[in-house]
Structure formats: C-alpha cells, structure tokens
Write a structure and sequence with these properties.
Blueprint: E1 8-11, H1 15-27, E2 33-36, H2 44-47
Parallel strand pairs: 1-2
Length: about 70
C-alpha cells in the first residue's frame, strides 16, 4: 500500500470513519479512497456487545457493566 496514491485516507473504521467513507464514495467523484483500521473488521469496537457506547455520560445507562466494574 505504500506505493499507492489516494485522494483521501480515512484513519479508523468505526462509526465516523465508515460513515465518512460511505459519504465520500456516494456523494463525491473521488475514486481513490482508503480506509485504515487496526482491527480485523470495521466497527469492531462499536459492534462488540461488551464494549461501552464510546460516549461520555454519567454511566447510569450502561447495561453491560456490573457494579464491580463501575
């Protein structure tokens, strides 16, 4: 991949990265778009049931944590 030339390189295949990829591929004339993700699949962190929602809040709505983890 080091010899490739891209119009846009998106770092991170989470919700924002994949949404940006979709938007650029669908609504622009860009042809050379790359998505770099460190995990084996896209949205792996957000899709995993035991992960939190990656949002900032007081923690009272997270249903996947026990009281010991808080």
């Amino acid at each position: 991949m080091s010899n490739q030339i891209y119009d846009v390189v998106i770092i991170g295949g989470g919700v924002a990265g994949t949404a940006l990829l979709y938007s650029l591929a669908t609504f622009t004339d860009l042809k050379r778009i790359a998505l770099l993700e460190k995990y084996p699949s896209i949205a792996a962190v957000n899709s995993k049931a035991t992960n939190n929602s990656q949002t900032i809040h007081c923690g009272d709505i997270e249903t996947n944590y026990t009281l010991e983890k808080r």
